[in-house]
Amino acid sequence: MDDRQIYIGVFVRKPVIDRLRKQKPTYSITCLESAGRKVGNIVYFFSEQEVDLKKHLIIGAYYSEKEQRWLQKTFPYPDVLYNRRAEGTNSKKVQLFRDTVKKLGVTQNS
Domains in the chain: how many in total? Predict the structure, then answer.
């Protein structure tokens, strides 16, 4: 079995990212991050604004255990995409991102 850590990207709206930057995560965000970390995965959160479609990179918010705070860094596209955005309000960029990760074989919720 592959021992590589799995990247789980949680696709959210910008206000969620703004809360993480202010160190004010919601309970559900804290639970998602904690659960992923407990099983050895890397969980990061991002919004449409943090996606670089050309380079296949994302500036994601993640919790640093070492620093005991939410930080940001550049991540590859995730192995697993958890879409927490409401459907029906997606921009062209969001749809292109979702189509791209689907073509790349990224596991995602429907």
Answer: 1
How far is Cα 1 from Cα 49, in angstroms, rounded to an integer? 35
**Is residue 2 in a domain?**
no
The per-residue pLDDT for range 15-70, each reduced to its tens digit, is 999 999 999 999 999 999 999 999 999 999 999 999 999 999 999 999 999 999 99
* Domain assignment of residue 12, given as a range: 7-108
Measured CA to CA, the distance from residue 39 to residue 6 in angstroms comes to 10
Q: Is the dihedral of CA 92, 20, 81, 73 positive or negative?
A: positive
Q: DSSP for 82-96?
A: EE-SPTT---HHHHH
